[in-house]
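A quick aside before the break. I want you to see a complete sequence-to-structure record at least once, exactly as it would be stored in a machine-readable document. Don't worry about memorizing anything.
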Amino acid sequence: MSSESTAPGLEDEPGAAAKLFGDRLELARQYTADLARLGEALGLIGPLELPRLWTRHILNCALVAPLLKPGSVGDVGSGAGLPGLVLAIARPDSQLVLIEPMERRVDWLKAETDRLGLDNVLVVRSRAEDARLPVPLDQVTARAVTALRTLIPATAGLVRPGGELLFMKGARVDDEIAAASAAIRKARLRDIEVLTLGLGVSPEVTRVFRATVG
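That is the input. The structure line, written in tokens, reads:
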């Protein structure tokens, strides 16, 4: 990566990046550099994120990639492309549908998809509950969008029966699950579990709420 594309203050690339991205590492570097260079001005990331952009955001999202199946995966509230663009980079065998309601973020997602040359990304401007997709998704993910009691009813209808919800959550995910009991019953979710990813790999673990849509 050239010095011209490196934003001042950007965190050095952690060694774990090579393990998580493999032969797609250069694309991950380009995306990280683009987000570092343009993200704050576009309102995609905050002013304090550059010193932890790799560990807190890029690697945090990449840890979810092994959970994806080679099918269609929606990313609700995709925003800066976290995790949608990161997953599209790490898993070229999956088709990512980035669902985002805000026009300026949609413009960023489309432009960045073109810059990276990703052919496995579709950007849809919509709220999750209003999205009209040609076929049901195999999986849907979301990061830092809203609580499970709201997120589950907004997204479960996008997924085919037997498909999965993969939501990146914080340390209080168990409290969210308890508060979402009614939504879980209504969506007929089963095989509910919380996965902790990244132990021994990344400085920050990733917690994922995973459930199958009945």
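Two observations worth writing down. The two ends are 45 Å apart (CA to CA). The helical segments are 16-21, 25-38, 53-62, 84-90, 103-116, 148-155, 173-179, 181-186. We'll return to this after the break.
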